[in-house]
Amino acid sequence: MKKLLLTTLFLLGLSTQAIAADTPLALIQDTSAQVLELLKKDDGKNTARIRTQVETFVIPKFDFTRMTALAVGRGWRDATPEQKDALAREFQTMLVRTYSGTMTRFKNASVNIKPNVTLNNEGREATVKSEITTGSNNGNGSKPVNVDYVLYKTAQGWKVFNVSVEGASLVTVYRNQFSDEIRKNGLDGLIRALQDKNAKLARGASA
């Protein structure tokens, strides 16, 4: 489930429909189209150059600090500024490295984005619903997967801060994991656990 959540975190919607550039739908559609174009370069090979290009393009579309705060939960309020910086940095690194290691599986993906966007919080938050088919033989076959993207409007435009796959929220999945680690080893223990995970992912990427 985590891998599928991470897939949809970065692989946003697929559509050529023209939509105003400042809408949640536009963010999802425009980003995905350009990501897929990058993934199809070099015959779909997962080279370091392609990974870097995708990451550089996609990362600004997300608010990883907000995602981290929601994933850490109540512990975020107790964290020092230094701990918050470290948690957000390591969480972002983990999400990006996990996705980058498997992203070529998604170069043939397709999506049906639902036209009706749900607005909340006086129009400052939006949920975009979609159905995604990965186009891979990963056990899901060609069965569409329901994916919801949750965005909020900032001074810099709309940014994604959560994604749900078949009702399973990325933030909630990690909050359950993080709360166990915080309870056992505190916030510094969680930071160390994320650093260890990232070190393993880095070794795998360079292998």
Describe what this molecule looks like in 3D.
With 207 residues, the chain is α+β, with helices and mostly antiparallel strands. It has a single domain, classed as Nuclear Transport Factor 2, Chain: A. 51% of the residues lie in helices and 18% in strands. The protein contains seven helices and six strands. Strands 1, 2, 3, 4, 5 and 6 form a six-stranded antiparallel β-sheet that branches. The longest helix has 37 residues, at 170-206. The protein is globular and about 40 Å long. Residues 13-20 have low confidence and may be disordered.
Give the ordered list of helices and strands: HHHHHHEEEEEEH
CATH architecture: Roll
Look at the helices and sheets and give the structural class: alpha+beta
Give the N-terminus to C-terminus distance in angstroms. Answer: 25 Å
| Tally of DSSP β-strands | 6
Extract low-pLDDT stretches.
Answer: 13-20
Determine the fraction of residues in helical runs and give it as a percent range: 40-55%
Question: How many domains in all?
Answer: 1
Q: What top-tier CATH class fits best?
A: Alpha Beta
Radius of gyration: 17 Å
How would a textbook summarize the main sheet? 6 strands, antiparallel
The CATH superfamily is identified as: Tgt2/MlaC
Mean pLDDT: 80
Total helical elements: 7
Percent of sequence in beta strands: 15-25%
Shape, per Cα inertia axes: globular
Query: CATH fold name, please?
Result: Nuclear Transport Factor 2, Chain: A
